Amino acid sequence: MRGQALERGVRPATLDMILPGLSFNERVVALDRNQPDDSSPGQPPSMAGYLARRLDDARISGGRDRYARMQPRLMAFESRFGVPGPILLGIWGMETNYGGYTGNFDVLQSLATLAYDGRRRSLFTNELIAALEIVDRGLAPRSALTGSWAGAMGNPQFLPSSYLKTAVDGDGDSRADIWNSEADSLASIANYLVKAGWKRGEPWGLEVGVPATMDRRAIAGTAVSPTCPRVHARHSRWMTVAEWKALGLTAVGKGWPADHLRATLIEADGPGGRAFLTFDNYRALLDYNCSNYYAISVGLLADAISR
Questions:
Q1: Fewest CB atoms within 10 A around its CB: which of 7, 137, 150, 305?
Q2: Boundaries of each Transglycosylase SLT domain copy (predicted)?
Q3: Residue 248 lies in a domain
Q4: Strand 275-278 to strand 262-266: parallel, antiparallel, or no bridges (unpaired)?
Q5: Burial tier of 294 (Cβ tally within 10 Å: 0-12, 13-18, 19+)
Q6: Where does the pLDDT of residue 173 fall: very low under 50, low under 70, confident under 90, or very high at 90 and above?
Q7: Do residues 44 and 36 touch, judged by C-beta distance below 8 A?
Q8: DSSP per-residue letters across 84-99
Q9: What does residue 278 show for φ and ψ, rounded to 5 degrees?
Q10: Nearest to 205 by CA among 229, 227, 246, 235
Q11: Which of 20, 22, 23, 8 is nearest to 136 (CA)?
Q12: How is 202-246 classified by DSSP, letter by letter?
């Protein structure tokens, strides 16, 4: 690890300060082995249960309070990045409950443990070196690097490589402080989504009613995604809004977007459960966290905040 970090330009003094103090954390490995969501093989848990746990009244009211308090700044970020403020709050709310809990694991220890454990060695080796680079460049002190067991940090729960690629200054002090600055955190989330393909002025998704007689085989998706294939496999093929309307789908809660927009249908709990048409911007949410339950919960929280 030392050799790889040196090749990436991390100074020997930084490695001398950090590497000898790292130790194996068995709790991190145990948590890595137990991550039930809709990306897991076999029978996934229900989306209804997931939403009941995550999309509660407290999270919605907390988002609305922050939306009212921060609206001028959020509008400025929407003008700058093209991402609506409620979407930014939706991610912040789902990731850390608006900064209420950002994790207390030592990020460097967690990443070293996961790299050593080997299940996803390449990923976590890269993230560990990125964390070392953050300290080496003076972007954040060693003591600030606390977060989730998987190494996600700060209000947006960025992995170290995401911080280096997408964190930006949002409050004008020339620093990207995702640990202490709400403005920097929200601007960085917006920049992440833009880099993930967010399209200005387009929706994330729409809840729909699906006719009981619709032939699911006729709309089945056939493409295989190179990333998170099990998550994407739960979607139908792409069709335009006009085509979905022609099949008898009805909009729930808000009006239809433009007829030419492409969307896929997901019925996460199967026919008879809640159904959603998801648009290109939904893929940017999946890039943030590749779970249909997560992306839908962010979109629904954003919708609730904006009402």
A1: 7
A2: 3-303
A3: yes
A4: antiparallel
A5: buried
A6: very high
A7: yes
A8: -HHHHHHHHHHHHTTT
A9: -120, 135
A10: 235
A11: 8
A12: --SEEEEE--TT--GGGGB-----SSSHHHHTTBB--EEHHHHHH
CA dihedral defined by 160, 129, 283, 271, rounded to 10 degrees?
Answer: -90
Q: 159 with 130: CB under 8 angstroms?
A: yes
Mutual angle of helices 85-96 and 292-306, in 10-degree steps: 130
In a domain, 251, yes or no: yes
pTM of the full predicted structure? 0.93
User: 174 in a domain, yes or no?
Assistant: no
What is the rounded distance in angstroms from the CA atom of residue 114 to the CA atom of residue 122? 10
Residue 232 lies in a domain: yes
Tell me the per-residue pLDDT of 6-20, one tens digit each, with 9 for 90 and over: 999 999 999 999 999
Q: What are phi and psi of 146, to 5 degrees?
A: -120, 155
Region 61-83: mean pLDDT is 97
Instruction: Answer for the pair 298, 90: CB distance below 8 angstroms, yes or no.
Output: yes
The candidate with the shortest Cα–Cα distance to 93, out of 62, 57, 72, is 62
Q: Which domain holds residue 232?
A: 205-278
Q: Is the pLDDT of residue 159 over 60?
A: yes
> What's the mean pLDDT in 142-154?
95
Which token pair is 300?
A: 């629904």
Cβ-contact 277, 219 below 8 angstroms:
no
Helix, strand or coil for residue 10? coil
Locate tokens 């239809």: which residue?
256
User: For 120, which DSSP code?
Assistant: T
CA distance 221 to 237: 4
